[in-house]
Amino acid sequence: MALELAKRESGDVTIVDLRGRCTLGEETELLGRDLKKLIDSGCRKILLNLTELLQIDSTGVSTIVATYVSLRRIKGEVKLLHPTGRVQTVLEITHMLQVIPNFEDEAKAIASFSSRTYTAKS
Amino acid sequence: MPAHCNDSSVGVSQQTALVIDSGAELNKLLTDVLAQDNWKVEHAASNEDALELAKTDGFDLIITGRKTRGPADVELLRKIRGARPHVRLIILTDQWTPGDVITAMREGAFSYFAAPFNPTILAETVRAAMNDPCWDDGIEVLSANSAWVRLMARCDIETANRIVQFMQGVRDPNIPEEDRHDVVTAFREILMNAIEHGGHFDPSQHVEISFVKARRAVICRVKDPGQGFSQDELRHAAITSTPEDLFQHMVVREEQGLRPGGFGMLMARKLVDELIYNEQGNDVVLVKYLGKAAKSAA
What we know:
The structure holds two protein chains of two kinds.
Chain A: E1 3-10, E2 13-22, H1 26-40, E3 45-56, H2 58-73, E4 77-81, H3 85-93, H4 96-99, E5 102-103, H5 106-112
Parallel strand pairs in A: 2-3, 3-4, 4-5
Antiparallel strand pairs in A: 1-2
Helix pairs in contact in A: 1-2
Chain B: E1 16-20, H1 24-36, E2 40-44, H2 47-56, E3 61-63, H3 70-83, E4 88-93, H4 98-107, E5 111-114, H5 119-131, E6 139-144, E7 148-154, H6 157-170, H7 177-198, E8 206-213, E9 217-223, H8 248-255, H9 264-271, E10 274-277, E11 283-289, H10 291-297
Parallel strand pairs in B: 1-2, 1-3, 3-4, 4-5
Antiparallel strand pairs in B: 6-7, 7-8, 8-9, 9-11, 10-11
Helix pairs in contact in B: 1-5, 2-3, 3-4, 4-6, 6-7, 7-9
């Protein structure tokens, strides 16, 4: 598997560290499944840490956008942390960075989430 | 091109790999990846030693050492595949030319890595070689010279990833690095669209691919075996979304029961200078003007 995912928590924000490649195939299926599980389990504030993501393709972009759209419907939020290099280029040309908030600094990213505490039923 | 093979014998006995010396760090990386799946790993100091070992031991996978030049590795590949036609060989090298990479593809290398190596992608390619028993009918070079390469590729993700890695290895010094990345990324998107929507990931189907290196441009062509599409039927693609709702197509995809997607054509359009489809929509040409030529064209 070319994509490794690790989850951490900071208050009610779930941080998902992505490492490797997020491209069509098992990798995007894994990411989509894990993000859906997080939402289903009640997470409403998700920060995707892209610092160590080497490559993303259109399917990887779509998987993140699908999470953004799902969370927006239930008043949740997804944000991006520190995309670099070619990943940043891809996110720029697909307008992701225009729409999904993104940050260079993890502490600022966490602080930017709304202070409202969401639950799965809210 | 032969049909996709179905080798049911793979996985019955322990498989063996031969790693030719690339220095302690790379040797360890490769050995660790192979050992994780219980492969037996042997080591050789040079291509000559590897050839001697290969005469007596039937290796399933050989990974060349980075210190030898690309042509020497291709020569090793020829000799070994002469005796064992299905052996998988991954070439690592510090010294290569674009022509070496094409020759390696033509001679049936599994993959080609030109330094500097990305350890994550290298490890992933080794795993792909370990897990893909039916690989060597995936790519057929139909014709190739220094300016124009034509090939056929099987409609599966692993084969597409192999072609992209070969492209990454070419690194023509006349193509600026940023342009090269743009072309590879755009080509990969169009190729994946072709094998998914045109070939339905059916390994009995093939796409036809051409790469042309002109003085001021790089041109890629991808022809898929599908029926094509109409530009009017693209509500599920990001290129039809409006600035007011950039992700509108995702809602359409959800309504149509499609997986998340639809950004491929948008990405390709942004990364190359021209993206030209034929009338049916199953044949597409990508044009990237290089460096100053692109600026003057704009």
